[in-house]
Amino acid sequence: CYVCGQSGATIMCREEDCDRWFHLPCAKEGGCVTHYIPHYSSYCHQHRPEQDVQVTPEPGTQCLICMELVDDRKTFRTMVCPACKRAWFHRDCIQGQAMCAGILCLQCPLCRDMKEFLSQMFILGIRVPFRLPTWEDNNAFAERGERHSMCNARDCLCPGGREEAEAEGPWKLLLCSSCAAQGTHRHCAGLSNHIHMWECDSC
């Protein structure tokens, strides 16, 4: 391995006539780039693809992901969005975001471009998994789909309690027609049985 000097390197730079070999774990340390898409090509630090966007960051520019300063120019560890050319970030930061977002949600953190941004990230060796984003795992946001289900009247009069709700009648639970974040039984709000809409005091 031309990076660590140990034996067992199995990856060769794809550039013709380049005899550099390296281990996959050594690639990052050596500034190598691996394409995680067919044909899974790898390149040493000398022959790796570079961003051809002709911009440099302003002094004091921060990575939009970690909010730490980026290098004062494009480098292996400092990248820029190819679409807006204003969003700067560290390679490690965008790699972490790619692992969370997956191919369906990875986009520029500033301009939200997806098409040009994604294709450039593949070329520059960012691994983007072909799966749903991790925030969709295990129904992480399932509770956001739950409907409000209790009476918020100051004095709930329902014999069954605030969470009791009947299909019709005085103990039917009405949700605020504007925010749906507050509820009341018809009887607790002094509403007759033919009323089907109600608005909370906040709205």
UniProtKB/TrEMBL annotation:
SUPFAM superfamilies: FYVE/PHD zinc finger. PROSITE patterns: EPHD, ZF_RING_2. Residues 1-48 form the PHD-type domain. InterPro entries: EPHD (IPR034732), PHD-type_Zinc_Finger (IPR051188), PHD_PHF7/G2E3-like (IPR059102), Znf_FYVE_PHD (IPR011011), Znf_PHD (IPR001965), Znf_RING (IPR001841), Znf_RING/FYVE/PHD (IPR013083). Gene3D superfamilies: Zinc/RING finger domain, C3HC4 (zinc finger) (3.30.40.10). Keywords: Metal-binding, Zinc, Zinc-finger. One of its GO terms (molecular function) is zinc ion binding. Residues 63-112 form the RING-type domain. This is PHF7 protein. It comes from Certhia familiaris.
